[in-house]
Amino acid sequence: MKPSKQEQFVALLKGEVFDLVNKYSAGCPVQERAHRSIFDITKSEFIEWLKDNYSIDSLPFVNNKMGVEDGFYIIPEGSKKYRLYYQEYKVRFEECVLNNIDKVYDKFVGYLWKGWDLPED
């Protein structure tokens, strides 16, 4: 069975974030690196990762509730109506994500702490 867009996105995010941690911890002494975890990504590293991995024009998010609750400008793709749970949307990167980076980062770290146990469609 083909993974859903949600599963693909989460898998991508997980892989990229682990790569990010490895990248930034590579120069640390072994004992320091051993204590560095997925949760130690700084806000500036997170912003850099977003810029490296997504176009400046748009950023895909799978949970439109995140956008609605946090006040992001969401453009539904292919429909005037949008569902309440996971579906792919475009979020303006510069206007929304960087201006609301605290909320995006906190939500992102929150998903990490939940162990990626995201609700089903």
The main sheet comes to: 3 strands, antiparallel
User: Given the helix and strand composition, which structural class is it?
Assistant: mainly alpha
Based on CA atoms alone, the radius of gyration comes out at 15 Å
Task: Please count the beta strands (DSSP E, at least 2 residues each).
Answer: 3
Residue share in helix:
40-55%
Tally the structural domains: 1
- Strand fraction equals 5-15%
Number of helices: 6
Uncertain spans: 29-36, 55-95, 114-121
Succession of helices and strands: HHHEHEEHH
Ends: how far apart?
16 Å
Summarize this structure briefly.
With 121 residues, the protein is mostly helical. Helix content is 53%, strand content 12%. Mean pLDDT is 50; it is low at 29-36, 55-95 and 114-121.
Task: Characterize the structure shown.
With 121 residues, the chain is mainly alpha-helical. The chain has helices spanning 5-25, 30-35, 43-53, 64-70, 93-98, 101-113; strands spanning 59-63, 74-76, 86-91. The chain has one domain (5-113). 53% of the residues lie in helices and 12% in strands. It has a 3-stranded antiparallel β-sheet with strand order 1-3-2, with helices on both faces.
